[in-house]
Amino acid sequence: MNNNDNFKEKDYHISLFKPTTKLAKFNKNLIIGLFSIWAIAIFGFQIVLRVIEEPTPEAAFLNYEEVWGQVKNNEASVQEKQVFVQSVLSVLGKVTVATSDRVFLSSAVNNITMQLVPQNEEQVFLSKIKAFREVNYGEENYQSLKKDLGYTAAKYIGVPDYSLEAKLIPLELKAAESSQLNIKKIEMIMPKYLIHNQSVLTDTIFLGFPFHYFYTAVFLLILFVGLCLFYCIATDRKMLELGIED
User: Fold this and answer.
1) DSSP string spanning 114-181?
2) In which region does residue 243 sit, left (phi positive, over 0), alpha (psi from -120 to 50) or beta (all else)?
3) Residues in CB range of 201: below 8 A, 6 or more apart
4) Higher pLDDT, 76 or 11
């Protein structure tokens, strides 16, 4: 037998899509099966999440909804204005808030907070805001001015002076580009950050994590490694069964 005959006998041209040998056909079916399991595990779970999810508002949104009608109609009491400012600050405390949305929220905080300041204290409060706006982070008196403004504002918006709101409001008063209350923008922004799609899959805690997080971040990784391992074992066994040496 010459070299050409030997090459023809050992045809190494293999097509996954048009298998001609038993091993190639087995390999094709195995890949399709494992790929189907992988696809169902990923996309099927996402579909289930979308089907059973329900919009669930945070407590801050419920508080906001309760007072918003009075605030936008200029009929809110002091307590209702305080609740509104606290609700907006709960959104501003989120790191995911877009810069464009933050502009309108900061202006709303500025607007309603100034309405809560007694007239005889307004000039003093404005001077504290101005002083804080004129310093930059890291300068010697930055922290003292921030703390003083926060303690003063906390009294007006009805929160303890050591609260997160008291620490946050000086930054928003400093950043506020105006004192306008844009009603349409507020009504669009607040639900976006305070209403979340939830279900039993997101609320259930598994091994210390929300189940949907554990499933996507941990289980799917383990599943992928497991499918790879199964593929190797299955092909090795099939090769032994067919008497093929690697």
Assistant:
1) HHHS-GGGHHHHHHHHHHHHTS-TTSTTHHHHHHHHHHHHHHHHT--TTSHHHHHHHHHHHH-S----
2) left
3) 48, 49, 52, 211, 212, 215
4) 76
**pTM score of the predicted model:** 0.71
**pLDDT tens, 46-87?**
999 899 989 899 999 999 999 999 999 999 999 999 999 999
Q: What is the pLDDT of residue 16?
A: 64
Q: Are residues 63 and 33 in the same domain?
A: no
d(CA 71, CA 77): 8
2 lies in some domain: no
What is the residue range of 212's domain? 14-53+200-242
Label residue 98 left, alpha or beta by phi (over 0 means left) and psi (-120 to 50 means alpha).
beta
β-pairing, 54-57 vs 195-198, is: antiparallel
Is there a single domain that holds both residue 133 and residue 208? Answer: no
Residue 72 lies in a domain: yes
- Collapse the DSSP code of 81 into the 3-class scheme (helix H, G, I; strand E, B; otherwise coil) and give the result: helix
In whole angstroms, what separates CA 94 from the centre of its chain? 9
- Find the radius of gyration of the CA atoms of the chain: 31
Which residues in the chain belong to E strands, given as ranges?
A: 54-57, 195-198, 205-206, 209-210
C-beta atoms surrounding 4 within 10 Å: 8
